[in-house]
User: Which sequence fits this backbone?
């Protein structure tokens, strides 16, 4: 799973938004190692809206304890991802190989 969310305060660094979202969704802290690819795409339901997806490689600190927003999560082998992953997941994994 790649946690995601929205920027709530544009006055703080994106790395802090990433940390907040991971904490909310997975109940863990992270140490950001480095930025990965940024992807700009359009929302399927609103072609006039752009979405900026910012990805980071991070180290997990602690054991995962999903928050109330998380319906399901699982570990996956990057060479055998589920067919229903979002397109950006495949792009990021390809960059990491």
Assistant:
């Amino acid at each position: 799973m790649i946690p995601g969310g929205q920027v709530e305060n544009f006055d703080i660094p994106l790395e802090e938004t990433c940390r907040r979202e991971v904490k909310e969704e997975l109940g863990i802290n992270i140490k950001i190692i480095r930025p990965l690819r940024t992807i700009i795409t359009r929302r399927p339901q609103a072609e006039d809206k752009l979405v900026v997806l910012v990805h980071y490689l991070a180290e997990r600190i602690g054991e995962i304890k999903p928050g109330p927003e998380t319906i399901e999560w699982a570990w996956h082998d990057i060479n055998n991802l589920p067919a229903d992953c979002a397109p950006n997941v495949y792009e990021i994994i390809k960059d990491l190989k």
Summary: Helices lie at 14-26, 87-96. The CA atoms of residues 15 and 60 lie 14 Å apart. The beta strands are 29-43, 46-61.
